[in-house]
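FAQ: What does the model actually see?

It sees only this:
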Amino acid sequence: MRAVCQRVSRARVTVEGSATGEIGPGLVVLLGVARGDTETEAERLAGKVARLRIFEDDDVKFARSLLDVAGAALVVSQFTLIADTSKGNRPSFTGAAPAEEAVPLYERFCAELAAAGVVVERGRFGARMEVELVHDGPVTIVLD
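And it is asked to produce this:
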């Protein structure tokens, strides 16, 4: 499981012209689920995202988490994060979990993040989405 966390001042995801999720300050979390990932990994990763200290304190140091700043998370499924580019120029996605495995783990990740106290908005799993964001910093952290 891989999460790309981008600190934003605002973000929105739309599917077929309709917004499915929208946040103010917080994180856009692009979430990739690999074959063999487990609920334990989803729970661990959600906890790490909630507590990741990438928001600045009064001394302009990364000392605050999403929980500390009462930020929200916009979680977007993205199987392309699991791409294998080791051979040739065309990425292989065979390592990505099929939907019947990935959807429950995506849902578990979102539920755990919400249980930690984070407001969670979502994209739509498997849909072609448009993600708009105002990257703050920019700050981008990749978590495995």
